[in-house]
Amino acid sequence: MLAYPQIDPVAIALGPLKIHWYGLMYLVGIGGAWLLASSRLKAFDPAWSKDKLSDLVFWVAMGIILGGRFGYVLFYNFGHFLADPLSLFKVWEGGMSFHGGFIGVMLATWWFGKRNDKTFFELMDFIAPLVPIGLGAGRLGNFINAELWGKATDVPWAMVFPTDPAQLPRHPSQLYQFAMEGVALFLILWLYTRKPRPTMAVSGVFALSYGCFRIIAEFVRVPDAQLGYLAFGWLTMGQLLSLPMVIVGIALIVFAYRRQAAQGAV
């Protein structure tokens, strides 16, 4: 068993002002995405300026934050919201959803594209390789907060998390997700986009890969206490929300390459 590193969730404390590592991880994700996007900007659209890119990153960030919060309340804690509607705004109590953030990003991308003469999938294909940076940083934030830990296990790398009332050795599922959703997904998309791909294909690879990784991770991650398992003693909300991503991802890839082949045959 490995010892859990006792990391103070508060990175910086200046009197009553406290800056948490989890919040800093959002800055790392957004800043890293902006830097990577800057290096790819000319290949995407030589006419775009850094200011235009900054506008896109800003609106995507808003989609992540607002969508993530709304998604958590809707998908994971709707009963509590009905009892206390103001809980939607109590962000200091925690609670963000990737799938809600993803919906927020899609809405922000659609809105931004309409005003900047870009199609939805042109922008989504450009954004997709940037997302794993934020996903990886977020999972490290979960680990520092000792939250979203995994099931009890006897594997040699199990850890006892200080927030676990049972104090059992558990899978460090946050690190599993960091490795899959952050590192592996980044490498997959980075290598895949080294060559031009048909529109929609990059978005499809992202959706398919993330959906598969999240479904796998949920088998060793403890579900949210207020929801538990939804069916069969193993199906979680995360898996239920990720399954459509797998299906849509496959459909996008197939459609993208079939359309490319049909256009090439004309």
UniProtKB/TrEMBL annotation:
One of its GO terms (cellular component) is plasma membrane. Pfam families: LGT (PF01790). The chain crosses the membrane at residues 19-36, 56-76, 96-113, 175-192, 199-217, 229-257. A 1,2-diacyl-sn-glycero-3-phospho-(1'-sn-glycerol) binds at R139. Catalyzes the transfer of the diacylglyceryl group from phosphatidylglycerol to the sulfhydryl group of the N-terminal cysteine of a prolipoprotein, the first step in the formation of mature lipoproteins. The keyword Manganese does not apply. It is found in: Cell membrane. Keywords: Cell membrane, Lipoprotein, Membrane, Transferase, Transmembrane, Transmembrane helix. The keyword Transmembrane helix applies. Pathway: Protein modification; lipoprotein biosynthesis (diacylglyceryl transfer). It is a multi-pass membrane protein. Belongs to the Lgt family. InterPro entries: Lgt. GO terms for molecular function: phosphatidylglycerol-prolipoprotein diacylglyceryl transferase activity. The lineage of its organism: Bacteria, Pseudomonadati, Pseudomonadota, Gammaproteobacteria, Pseudomonadales. It comes from the Bacteria. Its main location: membrane. Its EC number is 2.5.1.145. GO terms for biological process: lipoprotein biosynthetic process. It comes from Pseudomonas fluvialis. This is Phosphatidylglycerol--prolipoprotein diacylglyceryl transferase.
